[in-house]
Amino acid sequence: MLRILGKASSINVRKVLWTCAELNIPFEREDWGSGFQSTHTPEFLALNPCAMVPVIQDDDFTLWESNTIIRYLVTRYGGADLYPAEAQARAQVDQWIDWQASELNRSWSYPLMALVRKSPEYQDSAALGAGCRDWARNMEILDRQLHKTGAYVSGREFSLADIPIGLSVNRWFETPLEHPDFPAVSAYYERLSLREGYRLYGRNGTP
C-alpha cells in the first residue's frame, strides 16, 4: 500500500491526498512535519534530504516534491484522463502546475503567514499590502484563463493542473483579506466542490 508521510493540513500533502482520491489509490498516511514527528530526524532525512513533506513510499520506491509525486501517481496508476500523453495537451497541464508553484505560491506566502499563521515576523503593513496586491494580480490571471476555457484551468475537462490550482483557490477564499470579484474563479470553486476529493482535501475548512 502507498505510504504518505506528511500532516494532513499541509497544502502540498493535500495535493497528494486529493490525487489519490481521484485515482482511488489506497494509502496509509503518517503525521510528519511541524507539530508532529520531526522531518529533521535521520530517519526522515534519509528519505528526503530537504526535510520537507510530503514523501511517498510506493513499495521500495521513495519520492519527494509534491508536483513530481502527483505526476508520478497519475502515470503509475492510470490517470491518463488527468495527465494526457499527447505532448501539447500535457504541456498545457504542466504549464499551469508550474505557474502555481513558481508564481501563485510566491504571491500568497506573505499574506498567509501574516493573516492565517499570524507570525510576528510577517506583520509589516507595506509588505502585506504588496503581497495582497500580487496575489490578487495572479488570481486575475487565473480568472481570465477560466473565463477563456469556461470550465477548468487547462481546458474543458478536469486535469491534474486543477489539483494544485484548486488548493490555492481554497487558500484564497479561506484567507481573511479583501477579495476582488473574480466571477470565473468563484464559479470554478463551486465546480471543484462537486468533486469528493476536493471536499475532503481542498474545501474542507483548511486554508
Automatic annotation (TrEMBL):
Name the domain of life this protein comes from.
Answer: Bacteria
Q: What is this protein called?
A: Glutathione S-transferase family protein
Q: Where are the transmembrane segments?
A: none
A Pfam family this protein belongs to?
A: GST_N_2
Task: Extract the PANTHER family matched here.
Answer: DISULFIDE-BOND OXIDOREDUCTASE YFCG, GLUTATHIONE S-TRANSFERASE-RELATED
Q: Which residues form the GST C-terminal domain?
A: 86-207
Instruction: Outline the extent of the GST N-terminal domain.
Output: 1-81
